[in-house]
Amino acid sequence: MHAWDCLAGYCLVKEAGGWYHPFPTEGERLTRGAPVIAGGPGVLDDLTRIAGVDAASVTHA
Questions:
Q1: What's the pLDDT tens digit per position in 41-54?
Q2: What is the pTM for the complete model shown?
Q3: Beta strands 38-39 and 59-60: pairing type?
Q4: Where are the beta strands (DSSP E) in the chain?
Q5: Which pLDDT belongs to residue 61?
Q6: How many other C-beta atoms are found inside a 10 Å radius of the C-beta of residue 47?
Q7: What CA–CA distance (Å, rounded) separates 25 from 17?
Q8: What ranges in 1-61 are assigned the alpha helix state H?
Q9: How far, in Å, CA of 39 to CA of 44, rounded?
Q10: 35: helix, coil or strand?
């Protein structure tokens, strides 16, 4: 997913009290796309474990 495709979604998730993993902007990821992960408070532990993402690195609302 490209940054411009996910930013509105990040805003919606944040306003709803959820969390998201910051969009990776290093190298060509900003223009070529990168994985996106976001969710509600109740799925943080399970979803970050499944995705292999450090739960401490997510941005909370």
A1: 889 889 889 988 88
A2: 0.70
A3: unpaired
A4: 19-20, 38-39, 59-60
A5: 64
A6: 18
A7: 24
A8: 3-15, 29-32, 44-51
A9: 7
A10: coil
